[in-house]
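>> Question from a student workshop board

For tomorrow's exercise we were told to take the sequence and the ligand below, predict the bound structure, and bring the output to class. My setup keeps failing. Could a helper post the expected result so I can at least see what it should look like? The ligand is guanosine-5'-diphosphate.
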Amino acid sequence: MSDAPPKVMVVLPTYNESENIGRIVPALFALGIPNLHLLVVDDNSPDGTGAKAEELGRQEGNAGRLAVLHRKKKQGLGPAYIDGFKRALSLGADIIIQMDADFSHQPKYIPHLLTAIQERDLIIGSRYIEGGSVDNSWGLIRKLLSWWANRVYTPGILRAPARDATAGFRAWRRDCLVGMDLDQIKANGYVFQVEMMYVAYRLGYRIGEIPIHFPDRQFGKSKMSGGIALEAALRVLQIKRRHRRLTPAQRRLAPP
Ligand SMILES: Nc1nc2c(ncn2[C@@H]2O[C@H](COP(=O)(O)OP(=O)(O)O)[C@@H](O)[C@H]2O)c(=O)[nH]1
Ligand SMILES: [Mg+2]
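>> Workshop helper replied:
Here is what the output should look like for this input. Compare the format with yours to find the bug.
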């Protein structure tokens, strides 16, 4: 075995993030993490995010470290991530980071994720453990609902250890994503995050959390809504029904 640093690939799904993409790419490379690569997964954003990402990938210093996966049309976060994860595996990533492109997931936490993943298979950047927090502008009701859904409701149903099951700032070990049958992940939006976590848990992978502060985006618009959040809560039961019989014996050993 060589001592080369693991290949870390950050998967960034984008839809109309033209104001953010030119900021997040340099912010990620500025971390100075050796062997860090980026994969932008763009759903043909009408604002030209995909072309902008291509341009960034041609810039000196970025060339060979930034790939863009173009999908034909907007199909939601879940399918974009599944495609992105498959591509990251085929590009030989050892550790896969998933994060929003809008700075709600702050690059400064990536070193914390990378340290924690050494002892686990999945690390979740959590808003609801000690040291974590959400944007100060969130009203009390919104804060309470999100806390309750993630901290009480979802763990109560799934009996899985994550205390921020809908959080989308995560690190995965390659073996864990290989072991999961990604074609069996059907959910979209916030439930996608819950489904991925639950399948990993059922397959016996070790899940850990690190605290993060989650500020609201400064540029661009959110693609989520209160309705999507409510739907997510109802679909947790479906996720349980679909995957509760999975056991570690059903881990896959190699990608198809
Ligand atoms: N490729 C792709 N990215 C998406 C889609 N929907 C949202 N995103 C991206 O996923 C990330 C999170 O979405 P966002 O709208 O910020 O959700 P919020 O943080 O829950 O408000 C952002 O980087 C979005 O650009 C989609 O349909 N396709
Ligand atoms: Mg966001």
